[in-house]
């Protein structure tokens, strides 16, 4: 029989050489987090301007998005519907690039450095064939010219560089750069993975990323907001993956198009931070602009465990000021209700994200 694992949640574990059991890994030493901590005072000040214009309760997605407006009065004044109608001029706080995806365009702008913190991640050119070691060696040999160019470009323009073998871009961003309340652009469709830390992370093309890197206002049609209310807790072998597949079955692969999926309710707080990241990551399979969650204790623990305690402390204060959660009475464009206790493990194929089959019906 299988025994239920009794290891505490929200912990990191490592396998010690020569041993067969995991040992607890201590949280990383605190990093210098000045470049990754959102300017909460400025964002909340901008949000105060937004509240005077709209005079209504706001969803979390609206709070994060509208607090990054270049000029709230210009974007929001005049009455009428905003979500799904207005075009917003925004200032993202960070850009993450996979391989060669925006650097060439940025180099033509003639600027000495990126206007916002940015990073380059070399992972998409590593083809999986024979195993990690062999695949990495082959990729470095066959793409050496590209990797050398990216590294030199990063040094010239003050961009952080993650060499081949450092890890997949989405996990590096989650472990090092993501922060509650941040607005980030990434040149990959699964950039929303970082939404697991209570932010808006949006996948874009290279030209959009260059807008942020040059300090040019980035334009986005105001997304609709779909509320997803979670109650209960996952049980048995059910995982966050099963939750997002269940939602995909309800909304289909087009149901999130032009919308932000905003999760709320007590069920959110029973999930791990990495579990929320999985849910946000797969929101791309529904066509969603991105996904987000209110700031939770699990997020706080994850920030501390990954050496970002200063970000956690700043987020704690921002939450006290009402920034990292929705206003009571905020309205959705659509609402989905889910009882986590009713979910079960599901099976799916590679091309049918919205046609998962529960094990009981397999």
TrEMBL record:
Domain Aconitase/3-isopropylmalate dehydratase large subunit alpha/beta/alpha: 62-361
Protein name: Aconitase/3-isopropylmalate dehydratase large subunit alpha/beta/alpha domain-containing protein
UniProt keyword annotation of Iron present: yes
Gene Ontology cellular-component terms listed: cytosol; mitochondrion
Gene3D superfamilies: Aconitase, Domain 2 (3.40.1060.10), Aconitase, domain 3 (3.30.499.10)
GO MF annotation terms: 4 iron, 4 sulfur cluster binding; aconitate hydratase activity; metal ion binding
Pfam families assigned: Aconitase
Family annotation (InterPro entries): Acnase/IPM_dHydase_lsu_aba_1/3, Acoase/IPM_deHydtase_lsu_aba, Aconitase/IPM_isomerase, Aconitase_4Fe-4S_dom, Aconitase_dom2
Protein keywords: Iron, Iron-sulfur, Metal-binding
């Amino acid at each position: 029989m299988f025994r239920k694992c009794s290891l505490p949640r929200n912990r990191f574990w490592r396998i010690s050489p020569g041993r067969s059991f995991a040992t607890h890994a201590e949280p990383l030493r605190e990093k210098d987090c000045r470049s990754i901590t959102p300017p909460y005072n400025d964002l909340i000040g901008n949000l105060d301007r937004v509240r005077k214009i709209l005079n209504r309760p706001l969803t979390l997605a609206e709070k994060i998005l509208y607090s990054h407006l270049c000029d709230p009065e210009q974007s929001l004044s005049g009455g009428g519907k905003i979500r799904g109608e207005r075009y917003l001029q925004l200032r993202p706080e960070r850009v993450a690039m996979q391989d060669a995806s925006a650097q060439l365009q940025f180099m033509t702008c003639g600027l000495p450095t990126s206007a916002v913190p940015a990073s380059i991640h070399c992972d998409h050119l590593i083809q999986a064939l024979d195993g990690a070691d062999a695949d990495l060696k082959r990729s470095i040999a066959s793409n050496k010219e590209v990797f050398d160019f990216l590294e030199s470009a990063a040094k010239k323009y003050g961009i952080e560089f993650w060499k081949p073998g450092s890890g997949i871009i989405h996990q590096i961003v989650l472990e090092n750069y993501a922060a509650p309340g941040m607005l980030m652009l990434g040149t990959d469709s699964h950039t929303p993975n970082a939404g697991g830390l209570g932010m808006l992370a949006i996948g874009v093309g290279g030209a959009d990323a260059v807008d942020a890197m040059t300090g040019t206002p980035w334009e986005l049609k105001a997304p609709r907001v779909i509320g997803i209310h979670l109650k209960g807790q996952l049980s048995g072998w059910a995982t966050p993956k099963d939750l997002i597949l269940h939602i995909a079955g309800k909304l289909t692969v087009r149901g999130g198009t032009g919308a932000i999926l905003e999760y709320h309710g007590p069920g959110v707080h029973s999930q791990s931070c990495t579990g929320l990241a999985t849910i946000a990551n797969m929101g791309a399979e529904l066509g969603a602009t991105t996904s987000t969650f209110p700031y939770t204790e699990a997020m706080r623990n994850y920030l501390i465990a990954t050496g970002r305690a200063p970000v956690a402390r700043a987020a704690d204060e921002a939450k006290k000021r009402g920034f990292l959660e929705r206003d009571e009475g905020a309205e959705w464009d659509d609402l989905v209700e889910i009882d986590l206790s009713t979910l079960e493990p599901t099976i799916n194929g590679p091309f049918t994200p919205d046609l998962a089959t529960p094990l009981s019906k397999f």
